[in-house]
Amino acid sequence: MWVFQTLFIASDDIIKEYGQSDDASLAEALEASFHFFTNCNTKLGSKRIVLFTNDDNPDGKNKDKQHQTRKRAEDIAVSRIDLDIIPLGEKFDSNLFYQEIIHIVKKGHFYIEGPFSTSQDFSELINRQSYTNRSFGRIRFNLGNDTFIGCAIYKFTVSHLLKKVNLHRETNEPVRSVRQFLHPSTVKVLRPFEYVTSFTIANKVISFSDDEWNMFNNGFEPQITLLEFRSIDDVDLEFTFCNPLSFLFPDESVVEGSTTLFSALLNRCLERRIAALCIYNSRRGSKPRHVLLIPQHETENEDVYEKMPAGFHVFYLPFAGSIGEMPTSNIKTEESPENVDLMKKMIKKLKIQYSPSTMDNPKTSLEWAHIEAHAIDTEDLQDIKIDDQTIPDTETIDERLDFLIEDFNRTFETSCGTSSSKSSKRPAKSNTTRNYTKKQKN
Known about the structure:
Distance between the termini: 59 Å
Order of helices and strands: HHEHEHHEEEEEEHEEHEEEHHEHHE
Number of helices: 11
Strand order of the largest sheet: 3-4-10-13-12-11-9
Largest sheet: 7 strands, mixed, barrel
Strand content: 15-25%
Number of strands: 15
Shape: extended
């Protein structure tokens, strides 16, 4: 890391350890950082230069040095080294020079956040960027006529379940499982070339060799293939929530120039209010799915430039067999104004403020509870209790509804032609803790 006095508000410790320079230019600083990465023999997961500066127009009086800085920025972009500018001071104007440098390095319309005048503002930036955005996979978007866009796919929901490892019962060492096929008559272990995969269709056995079966499973190229465009107003999104949504964003590492073509496609879809119907095959061996790409605008506000990025939401479309009919009821009730007002009151009483951050996954909590029990050597592992926040709190519900429950039962029992003399109020549970039991193997 190279620190220069004109670029960084340096402390005494940093100056003592790294040094400083009064006449160094920004081009020399970027060149020194560039050689630091090129001379590194260790394989790095990512390369990034973070520049702290309070000078919004470095080398402003020397056009030759600014031209050299632009050339160094091009070298950094070619080597796929990222550059982040952290502006310091209240009157910092990034449009004077640094916005052009960021455009050269990132090859897109990326804006510099800030400036930051207090440590609190800078801490908020660090907290926002502490969440790493790792793509689920990189794939090509086939537009037809050998035209491809490199894209990265991101997930909105990620499962954090622990990976199960088989252990030896006595030594507790990891074991490896091996699957073998035996001959039904001779009980001899069969080799891969000695057996085939077969299916019985219409009382006829159809067999596939190992090569034919692999060709059948891996016959689809991993990519997104464009089929047609449809108007967003005519698209019915009622049945599109069968899988968690994904997000599509351009990736220059797959196909060079993808950002420009992706932005052009996104802007035209937004202007014409159309969505793209595609076939999506994530990887070899997976089954292709029909997906709908819905464009999204990039939203802004005063505090954070990019609140929601621009890209395509990937809606997974169901198959015909995945759609079922909603069962109908023969009970008919009168939609009187009194009944409607009663239901409005009940809905208003039962409203809650839902937030995913306040509800834990009960399956994950159960796994960690068992791990904790084993770690502290708990004797009784048969009965482990966790706080399942997905179970409705019946005590709170009954307390909120109060007399509305009796009005509801009395009104709708009368409308259905039935009556009941018993109290219809359900008994409240003592707590909302679910009891999970796990049997131990003998």
